[in-house]
Amino acid sequence: MKNIFIKLTVMVFCSMLFIACDTDSTGNVSRVTNYPIIEINGANTVFTPIGTAFTDPGVVAKEAGAIIPTIVTYSGNFRGAKTLDINQADEYTQTYTATNKDGFKTNSTRKVIVYKTGDLVNSIEGVYLSTTTRNGTLLPASQGSSVDQKYIYIWKNSNGTYGVSDAFGGWYSIGRNIGITSATQGGTISGTISTNTFTFPGGILSNQYFGGTASITKLTVNAGSKTLVLTTNWTASDGTPYSFVSTLTQVQF
Length: 253
Prior knowledge:
mainly beta, 9-stranded antiparallel sheet, 4-stranded mixed sheet, 2 helices
């Protein structure tokens, strides 16, 4: 009888477990949440001349088919602005955020490029396509684009010098698609355009992603072909020397 009692007890216990689990799995079911969906109007990259009012093409955000509001924020990718400044040339990331009734968020982004195009006689400002070699070799096709990398930016600082968004011509940030942290930022250019006499008062640069030390060593401007050739030398963190030569072709708007 003792053995039979134990078996019955186990059977009853198991049955209770089964009922309890079944009740737990069906008695407190979460309701369905509909995540926000954002559709961007217009192009993913928008160009606006410096000093010109920007008209946002906007987005349509929906939750279960119903339109919901969005919040828009901006950040300057190379010059640090926290909002869109139409008087400061830069590549801005415009972020749209929609939140559903359960608090779940969805983000979509677009690039807004505020630019000024210099004539390469009096100014080298502009938006540029870049073809870059490293130690004389183009980026292998297996690693990314080797020509017409979009985009490198040159702007004029308040003191009359020029800044450049990536002294490596986008080799890592664009060509290998690593992103802005792999751009070598902080390069400064000063000098006389007509004689191609330049200095680089920004001094020693670094690469946030890879480390090491870099310096711009040469710039040549050709107003006729609308091109610049920018040379930057880099000693990587492991001591390996590299030379980046970037042919920058000015985009005409």
